[in-house]
Amino acid sequence: MEPSTTSGKPIITIGQHIQTEQWAHPTATGELSWLLGAITLATKIIESNVRNAGIRDVLGATGVSNVQGELVQKLDQISNDTIVRCLGYYDNVGIMVSEEDDEPIVAKDVGEKGKYIVLFDPLDGSSNIDVNVSIGTIFSIMQRRSDTPPSDAPLSECLQPGINQVAAGYVVYGSSTVMAYTTGNGVHMFTLDPSFGAFVLTRENIQMPPEGKMYSVNEAYRGTFPEGYQRYLEWAKTKDAGTYSLRYIGSLVADFHRTLLRGGVFLYPPTAQAPGGKLRLLYEANPLSWIAEQAGGAASDGRRRILEKQPESLHQRTPLILGSKTEVERVLSFLD
Ligand code: P6P
Predict the structure, then answer these.
(1) Residue 245 is part of which domain span?
(2) Ligand 1, closest atom to CA 248?
(3) Smallest CA separation from ligand 1 atom 16, residue
């Protein structure tokens, strides 16, 4: 049974867990722990806005579009501002990269002290907000590679492959609010207890089921997927494949959270509308791919491991095949 605040089992908050992780690294300075704590604070504030969206005037669009060409929802902007305000004014955050901002954000020029780059999608799936479908926040943390002042940092500092991440996580605002994170020492999951506003440990060292008879894809675009993907989807419907189910929420964090816990595979292939894929490499694919791998899963763009891709631009998109190792390998076998 999962520990909870009433089961008599230990009550461990995410702050205590992060601290324990830090103590396991004698050279750790505590800065990353602080950073994860600031992100946790931001997601609690976002959660409060999401839960009250129908009551507070935060539903609907702002009327402006972001760098992705998507209409920015009010909650997108509020969530983005919240993360910047919780993170941006501390010396260990040098640069932030957000889905909502064309350029990197340097909230405070802290000189060579700003050792971390925080990359995030403040509210993924926001088109679902107005219809009460689960949405989420995704974050990735890297270290800067030079001691130039952040405001003079070349863009290349932000364009690091996913293998360089030092921490990654997501929060899914669903029937409950759940955060999962990794610092490279397994994947650990926490549920927000709204009665006292803390994320409490509910699952430690999560292992994704190695197989799962569930695939998650928007089949409406099937006709424009590359042929190999179409062959996989045909196969998945045959008796040879066994009984696969299709589950697609249309909110990446929710579809990934289910895949992490139940197994299966999420895929967003190249389409006619998005020939390079739709999902963003730096602050969607990289963090979720690292979490998947840390949980024993796999992540590919159809040709190579997501975490080894060298980003060419800040908001670069990528095809994404993400989930149970066996299921990802099965999809790849159709693409050869
Ligand atoms: P489609 C939401 O807009 C999002 O960025 C992801 O959360 C989700 O997985 C994907 O787009 C859904 O895209 O084209 O199926 O609506």
Answers:
(1) 214-335
(2) 15
(3) 250
Same domain, 142 and 70: yes
Burial class (CB in 10 A: 0-12, 13-18, 19+), 123: buried
| Protein residue whose Cα sits closest to atom 5 of ligand 1 | 125
Q: Is residue 253 part of a domain?
A: yes
- The alpha carbon of 32 and the centre of ligand 1 are apart by a number of angstroms equal to 30
Evaluate whether residue 170 is within a structural domain. yes
Q: What's the DSSP call for residue 221?
A: G
Classify residue 70 by its DSSP letter: P
Nearest-CA residue for atom 2 of ligand 1: 125
Tell me the best of 123, 251, 256, 321 to mutate to test the pocket of ligand 1, counting ligand atoms within 8 Å of each CB and taking the most. 251
Q: List beta partners, residue 180.
A: 170, 189
What Rg, from alpha-carbon coordinates, does the chain have?
19
Distance 81 CA to ligand 1 centre (A): 22
Q: Which of 66, 278, 284 to mutate to test the pocket of ligand 1 (most atoms within 8 A of CB)?
A: 278
Print pLDDT tens along the chain (336 aa). 444 566 678 889 999 999 998 888 888 888 888 999 999 999 999 999 998 887 766 677 777 877 777 776 788 999 999 999 999 778 889 999 999 999 999 977 777 778 999 999 999 998 788 888 999 999 999 999 887 888 888 889 999 999 999 999 999 999 999 999 999 999 999 999 999 899 999 999 999 999 999 999 999 999 999 999 999 999 999 988 898 999 999 999 999 999 999 999 999 999 999 999 999 999 999 999 999 999 999 999 999 999 999 999 999 999 999 999 999 999 999 997
Cα atoms found within 13 Å of the Cα of residue 329, Cβ hemisphere only: 7
* Ligand 1 pocket, Cβ-based, cut-off 6 angstroms: 124-125, 127, 218, 250-252, 255, 278
Q: List the CATH number of the domain containing 275.
A: 3.40.190.80
How far CA 49 is from CA of 13, 46, 54, 138, 294, in Å, comes to 22, 5, 9, 17, 31
The residue from 174, 203, 232 where one domain ends is 203
Contact (Cβ atoms closer than 8 angstroms) between residue 303 and residue 181: no
